[in-house]
Amino acid sequence: MEFWKLFITSLMPVVKVLLVTAVGAFVALDRFDILGENSRKNMNTIVFFVFTPALLLGNLAKSLTLRSIVMLWFMPINVLLTFIIGTALGWLLNKIARTPLHLQGLVLGFCSAGNLGNLPLIIVPALCKESNGAFGAVDFCNTNGMAYVSLSMAMGSIYIWSYVYNIVRIYTCKANSSNLSKDESSAVISVSATETDPENLSKCSTGQLVTVENSSQENGHTGQLEIECTNGEAKVVVPKQAKILKLFKTLAGNINLKALLPPATIGSIIGLIIGVVPPFRKAFIGESAPLRVVEDSVSMVGDAAIPTVTLLVGANLLSDVNGSSLQLPIIIGIIVVRYVALPVLGVGILKGAMRMGLIHSNPLYRFILLLQYALPPAISISTITQLFGAGVGECSAVMLATYACASVSLTLWSTFFMWLVL
Question: Which InterPro entries does the annotation name (predicted)?
């Protein structure tokens, strides 16, 4: 195909995304307040718990089989590579730009996690329609394309909530502990001044004598007396086994299974099981399946995810931008990482994989693998920042900047990717 035709074909899906996103931003204005703060919160909850799991379950169950899973084995690795390379580039950006500690995890999340679900779900069907058969017949292209995108979205959801979630959590905890240590050091200075007062010294001298049992009494050792200056309070000696047990209880309590297994991941797992296991597939999928009405109902609910999420993208871009403290060089660095460095490295990786014969020759499959490196940051990062209550304004500012640049970047890279695979 000629360059101009490729450009128009790549532009149409992006324009559709921009139009629906603009509608979402328009109805979220204060003058209309249709998608106000409470409405967005309720719709995000419905998308998170209902629409997205149903979409993934229905598409994966219908499109994937054991044979197709074997053929698509490189896609989970490719998605993981986008996360690893993005994290490395984000780490370099933090070092160069000297990002504040409480925002370093957020920058790593933006650089590593791309929007692997919502945008490809819109771009690929529109591309199949606009490509004039370049990727095969429209129905064939849609069926295969939705299978590829659904698997990509499933892998992205798993990596985001098991990888990016913990990165943001670790850096947020570091920032909180750093602030806490500063507060404690100032508190120690004030307390030490009061402890040297004569009246407090008299309290220390009257501390109780606490008997500490020695574990080797059979060797003739007697109990030891320990004088504890605790203002008249007895010291409690905790055995090592109790400390270890308490540590395990703390670790178990900190593991958030709801975060590690969000509804999208659960829907993906169920969809994979139904699609891969023959008895389940015969029961739910196909015109003669006895439980086909269940699959049809799930697919009908899942179809509402794409327009709803796109409207929410536009509405969420307007929220809390004024509360951002993120410096402009950091935002520019994130844009360079996502729209320049990652796509260039992705082309090199895919070229090497094709020469080694790791990827089959389907041009639509290769296009989606390349597209995974050129997408804007994942919308789920805004949900993660809201969970920890840190960097909400900064997240909105980065989302607004990156999605504004995505209209140009996605069009140009999609044009180049189509020229590369066709």
Answer: Mem_transp_PIN-like, PILS1/3/4/5/7
In this predicted structure, the answer to whether residue 51 has a pLDDT above a threshold of 50 is yes
Q: DSSP class of residue 326?
A: -
Q: How far apart are CA 280 and CA 273, in angstroms?
A: 8
Mean pLDDT of the chain: 78
| pLDDT score of 211 | 43
Better pLDDT: 370 or 144: 370
d(CA 134, CA 412): 18
Provide the whole-model pTM. 0.74
Which residues, 6+ apart, have CB-to-CB distance to 97 below 8 Å?
A: 327, 329, 330, 333
Residue matched to tokens 């009405």: 293
Tell me the per-residue pLDDT of 211-266, one tens digit each, with 9 for 90 and over: 444 444 444 444 444 444 444 444 455 566 666 666 556 545 555 555 557 787 78
CA dist., res. 183 & res. 325, Å (int): 22
CATH assignment, 3-181+258-421: 1.20.1530.20
**CA torsion sign, 5 to 10 to 16 to 22?**
negative
CA distances from 98 to 80, 106, 108, 319 (A): 26, 13, 13, 26
Is the C-alpha dihedral spanning 275, 280, 282, 287 positive or negative? negative
Residue 377 contacts by C-beta under 8 Å, 6 or more apart in sequence? 109, 110, 113, 114, 115, 334, 338, 398, 399, 402
What the block records as the tokens of 158 is 């798993």
CB-based burial, 345-381: b 16+ in 10 Å, e otherwise: bbbebbeebbeeeebeebbbbbbbbbbbbbbbbbbbb
CA angle 395, 163, 303 (to 5 degrees): 70
Q: CA of 170: how far to CAs of 159, 183, 260, 280, 337, in Å?
A: 16, 20, 15, 40, 22
Q: Domain coordinates of the chain in residue numbers?
A: 3-181+258-421, 200-254
Looking at 318-391, list the stretches that DSSP marks H as alpha helix, in order from N- to C-terminal side. Answer: 328-336, 342-355, 363-371, 380-388
- Are 172 and 105 a contacting pair, CB within 8 Å? yes
